[in-house]
Amino acid sequence: MTTFYSPTYFCNFCEREFEAGDNCYSQEAALNKAKELMYHKAVHICDNGHIGVGIFTGFERVDIGD
Ligand SMILES: [Zn+2]
Question: Which top-level group of life is the source organism from (predicted)?
């Protein structure tokens, strides 16, 4: 099983979650990166071509495989 942590943002314009940036492959790496991204923002291309700005909300843990 492979586990990774995907940086997740919440778009303030369209109020959807989206992912941006590189995944982390250990909990420790994600924890350290979360401290760095805490006040980070990312641009989101919303439906209809709007461009929104989202705030970092955390890392989503993703498990792949069996
Ligand atoms: Zn958006």
Answer: Bacteria
